[in-house]
Design a protein that fits this description.
This protein is mainly α and about 290 residues long. It is built from 11 helices and 9 strands. InterPro entries: Puta_zinc/iron-chelating_dom.
Length: about 290
């Protein structure tokens, strides 16, 4: 599918017609800060919101509401004849739609996919509404804090993957001739999200998606979350006596990184292959 990159100055039919078309039949992935933001707007605990309204341990919103004219089910937060019930806490994916966002070499790019602007199919009436620049649209959607959270979580994802590398490469595990660890990294990259969530288990799944942190500032929140995960890993894996234990710990940490990656919109299969290639270049075998 064709990807159309945009500049901040590009003018597009971005004024929403508020018909709810994009709230049906889509996939909304969320990070832990967004999950907390949604729960606050719903006036409930993050755990309760996750268990009621999310899938795969909390990385995706459920779409199990009333179907529209296309027979596509609504987001669990969509209320018929009203709209989004958590509008002020909605995640970045919803704020950006129909735009996508990508970071390459620390540079942010906005885009949309397809030969035709996505809103034209379900909401052609937007052509009669004011057109906005990409920059004006982002400002109006108040994306800033949510983009910061997303970028911080991309760094946290790499930090967790680095723990998996350290457990494999810096402990003597790779030098022992271990070939099982990278094989499992690859397997996890190809696993269904529900399978990988089950592999992580409740303890690490909860620590990843519903940490006991309540900071309103997204950067502070994510950095505290990073410290929490690092401390937990050190506590659990700081003095493992056997190669089998190191293998299991490395697999677990890579699983956490890949599961978070999926919630950030990354492709876990591609990431797993990338990280495997890096490990091999440092002496690991498969």
């Amino acid at each position: 599918m064709q990807t159309n990159k945009l500049s901040i100055q590009d003018i597009l039919p971005l004024t929403c017609s508020r018909t709810g078309t994009c709230c049906h039949g889509n996939q909304v992935l969320i990070n832990p800060w967004e999950l907390l933001s949604l729960a606050r707007e719903k006036k409930m605990a993050a755990r309760e919101f996750r268990d009621l309204y999310c899938e795969y341990g909390g990385i995706r919103l459920r779409f199990n509401g009333k179907a529209d004219w296309r027979e596509k089910q609504a987001c669990s937060q969509y209320v018929d004849n009203f709209g989004c019930s958590v509008h002020l806490g909605r995640p970045l994916a919803c704020r950006l739609y129909p735009l996508g966002r990508q970071i390459q070499s620390k540079e942010v790019h906005y885009m949309y996919q397809g030969d035709e602007f996505p809103c034209m199919e379900g909401c052609p009436e937007v052509l009669g509404l004011p057109h906005l620049s990409v920059g004006e649209y982002l400002k109006g959607q108040i994306t800033d804090k949510f983009e910061k959270a997303q970028d911080e979580y991309l760094e946290l994802m790499q930090n967790i993957a680095d723990l998996a590398f350290e457990l494999l490469l810096d402990t003597g595990l790779a030098e022992s001739g271990d070939k099982a660890t990278l094989a499992l990294w690859r397997k996890m990259g190809n696993e269904l999200p529900e399978v990988l969530a089950d592999r992580l288990g409740d303890e690490w799944g909860d620590c990843l998606m519903i940490p006991e942190i309540s900071d309103d500032d997204p950067i502070a929140f994510v950095r505290k979350h990073n410290d929490l995960l690092q401390f937990k890993a050190q506590e659990k894996f700081g003095a493992l006596p056997t190669n089998q234990g190191l293998h299991e710990a490395s697999v677990l940490m890579m699983g956490v990184a890949l599961h978070l990656a999926r919630g950030l919109g990354a492709n876990p299969q591609i990431l797993a292959e990338h990280w495997i290639d890096i490990a091999k270049s440092h002496g690991a075998e498969e």
